[in-house]
Write a structure and sequence with these properties.
Two copies of one chain form a homodimer. Chain A contains twelve helices and seven strands. Chain A is an alpha/beta fold. The model of chain A has no long low-confidence stretch (mean pLDDT 96). Chains A and B meet through α2, α7 and α10 of A and α2, α7 and α10 of B.
């Protein structure tokens, strides 16, 4: 039974998409069957894998609002064991449309149901907000992976994210666990990076992944080639750290 | 009559708050009277100025929903000519509540009306989305300043932002102009920075500010001291570039 992991943080630019894309690709390279779901209207995860959706084709927007079965919106990628449910900018309008649906917080969970058993992991990339799309991801997920940039504003936002997670655990999804907090864009030369990562470890203890993702320009070059970094430059420090993260996630087991 | 500038981009982490805070502080140091409005529920601009709102005090949430007059939510800051309308996390719930208001896209514009004449500039920090809060900022503004990180994903998001700006110009605010595109976190040593900034200048021409903001760790240290960088370390490259930006914005005139 596939484990569903939401990659979420309302703070913008902390590395959610970079993590969702490279963790999924790394798990696939380890031989796990993975589905990446792009729940962000910006559709960065979709273009990060070199894809884009024509207006006539199906994407997550049609799946959520019910006009298409999810099986028609699953696309293959360059990696054999990685498949994608893409997003498109029409998803920007989805939140307002979803407000009127019955049990609107569980739409994604219901739509994903039929395909979860085919995969070992389903990874969901979330937008930078705590709106209905992110709430849908948190109620569909078994766990939430929280990327955190080693910066002051990113640290500040964590308590609000934890309150939202607690709210979802109480009212929508009692099984939701924290997969871990991932320190991203870590630069050992900067005191700020050292201070923020120390504070995160004090606050979260062993829920902080041992793996840290270093600031590495190859990670931000890869999307312009439409490839995850682990394919664009497998031996760079960024790719190696995401392979280590995948091994750490896999060691937690795939059971939900 | 005060010029209202919205600092907006749905892409997360591109430097909206850092720009809103340091541009406002720089304009104040040049002698202009400035009001900074924190429209982001994350309230980073509020904490970036060393402030936080008690549950009993008024903030933008009460102003938008109409229970408080804006004059009761304006606070002074360390800088004589800079005042702030702070935000708080209760603003996360505002968008859903605003949906049922009459002319919900113009709420901010109506609430700001009484205080605009007291200032030369009103600067609005926006959240990383294209929801009702950002639409309110775009319909209240005379112009929109677009921070753009010199990264691939940030470049990709621009066409969606321009479509939304056009939509607002056609249906909500025909006077809305583009103040300019600001290149942020520029690192001259990286080919990616050079390529992206070249592409932005090809695409936007002279609407790209001459001033570029370099990647400078002092800019990200300043918020942990509750001060804009132009007070925390006025001589660093980050602060100097924001002073240059303020001079460039001021040269466009304060007339709306
Ligand atoms: N470890 C890293 N080293 C260098 N650059 C990185 C790293 N991780 C991410 N980036 C770059 O930083 C920017 C922000 O990362 P990304 O887009 O993954 O964040 P996000 O949280 O998904 O943003 P949003 O909130 O807009 O969804 C991107 O341009 C990305 O290429
Ligand atoms: N020029 C710069 N050099 C170095 N760090 C910067 C620079 N500009 C911003 N930062 C840092 O990068 C991070 C993102 O910037 P900021 O929070 O201002 O972006 P934002 O667009 O407001 O994010 P959000 O989308 O979450 O509102 C912050 O931690 C900030 O301190
Ligand atoms: Mg993203
Ligand atoms: Mg911000």
């Amino acid at each position: 039974m596939g484990k569903v992991i939401a990659v979420a943080n309302q703070k913008g630019g902390v590395g959610k998409t970079t993590t969702a894309v490279n963790l999924s690709a790394s798990l696939a390279r380890l031989g796990y069957r993975v589905l990446l779901v792009d729940l962000d209207p910006q559709s960065n995860a979709t273009s990060g894998l070199g894809m884009s959706v024509q207006d006539s084709a199906s994407c997550l927007y049609e799946v959520l609002l019910g006009s298409t079965d999810i099986r028609q919106a699953v696309y293959s990628t360059e990696l054999q064991d990685l498949e994608l449910v893409p997003s498109a900018t029409r998803l920007f309008g989805a939140e307002i449309e979803m407000v009127s649906f019955e049990r609107r917080e569980h739409l994604l969970r219901r739509r994903l149901g039929p395909v979860i058993p085919r995969y070992n992991y389903v990874v969901i990339d979330c937008p930078p907000s705590l709106g209905l799309l992110t709430i849908n991801a948190l109620s569909a997920a078994h766990s939430v992976l929280i990327p955190m940039q080693c910066e002051y504003y990113a640290l500040e936002g964590l308590s609000q994210l934890l309150r939202s997670i607690q709210m979802v655990q109480q009212s929508l999804n009692p099984r939701l666990a924290i997969e871990g907090v991932l320190l991203t864009m870590y630069d050992g030369r900067l005191t700020l990076s050292q201070q923020v990562s120390e504070e995160a470890r004090n606050f979260f203890g062993d829920r902080v992944f041992t793996t840290m993702i270093p600031r590495n320009v190859r990670l931000s070059e890869a999307p312009s080639f439409g490839k995850p970094a682990v394919l664009y430059d497998p031996s760079c420090s960024g790719s190696e750290s995401y392979m280590n993260l995948a091994k750490e996630v896999a060691s937690h087991g795939t059971e939900s």
